[in-house]
Amino acid sequence: MPAKILDGKAIAQSIIEELKQEVINLKKQGVVPGLAVILVGENPASKVYVKNKAKACENLGIYSETLLLPESTSQNELLKLIDKLNQDNKIHGILVQLPLPNHLNTQNIMEHILPEKDVDGFHPVNLGKLVMGEALFPPCTPQGIMEILKRTSIKIQGAEAVIVGRSNIVGKPVALMLLQENATVCMCHSKTKNLEEVTRRADILVVAIGRAEMIKASMVKKGAIVIDVGINRLNDKLAGDVDFKEVSKVASEITPVPGGVGPLTIAMLMKNTLKSAKLRNSTVLKI
């Protein structure tokens, strides 16, 4: 029997509908959540992501600013813009679209955003709180992965979870979040020996390695839950890091690309922005 498709788009839409009422309630108190997105350069994929984020803000009634900067923008110019947004009371969340041009210091720029406006969850303060199990703003993609698992009633506690990819954006944070939900977690990377043996142990397999269709059916345990975070161009089409056609014959449930994790990433960005607006205005309500 082919795997059940985990429809990230549908899950994201249900979350957006929940957040709409939260935005309405906040506006009744005179508060309009605000998000600023900074894009440096002309990366085509980044331009699409930024456009989708602006569209999500409009759909929710969140105020948004999209700041488009030339490729030649200097480190100092970008930091000055972030300083301005840090002090802008209309803006509750600041997102710098990655990747940045090579001449810019990404870590320095992430650290310059106030932790309470770091709705992407990449500031060292927020990542440190995540390690402690007290994340203010969990990184959006890992948070979206957890929403997929929880909202489809996938058992995390006691499951063996294998993460392929150790980035600060996805791999490490999602490993921590799964660990906090009492999964047994193993993280794989480019130096892992016998990768196929390790991935075949996974009850939950999360793949965020950035290589098109790297994970084959032989690498997946029968009945596993497979979460594909990858977005790659392959023969003029979008493809994940998992060979969907083959792996869907082995897995019990699997996320597609597109339409899997991606929509949840944007939904979690909206959720974090709304949470920031509530915190900034001393209306600390669980969302």
Describe the protein.
The protein has helices at residues 8-28, 44-60, 75-86, 106-112, 124-131, 140-151, 171-180, 195-199, 244-247, 261-280; strands at residues 4-5, 34-40, 63-69, 93-96, 160-164, 184-188, 204-207, 225-228, 232-234, 237-239, 253-254. It has 287 residues and is α/β, with parallel strands linked by helices. The chain has two domains: 30-116, Leucine Dehydrogenase, chain A, domain 1 (Rossmann fold, 3-Layer(aba) Sandwich); 140-262, Rossmann fold (3-Layer(aba) Sandwich). The strands form three sheets. It has a six-stranded parallel sheet with strand order 1-11-8-7-5-6. A three-stranded parallel sheet has the order 3-2-4, sandwiched between helices. α7 (171-180) links the parallel β5 (160-164) and β6 (184-188). α6 (140-151) packs across α7 (171-180). The radius of gyration is 19 Å and the shape is globular. The two termini are 37 Å apart. Residues 283-287 have low confidence and may be disordered.
Helix and strand topology:
Blueprint: E1 4-5, H1 8-28, E2 34-40, H2 44-60, E3 63-69, H3 75-86, E4 93-96, H4 106-112, H5 124-131, H6 140-151, E5 160-164, H7 171-180, E6 184-188, H8 195-199, E7 204-207, E8 225-228, E9 232-234, E10 237-239, H9 244-247, E11 253-254, H10 261-280
Helix pairs in contact: 1-10, 2-10, 6-7, 6-10
Topology, number of strands: 11
**Which value, in Å, is the CA radius of gyration?**
19 Å
> What is the CATH class name of the largest domain?
Alpha Beta
The class by helix and strand makeup works out as alpha/beta
Strand order, sheet with most strands = 1-11-8-7-5-6
Number of domains: 2
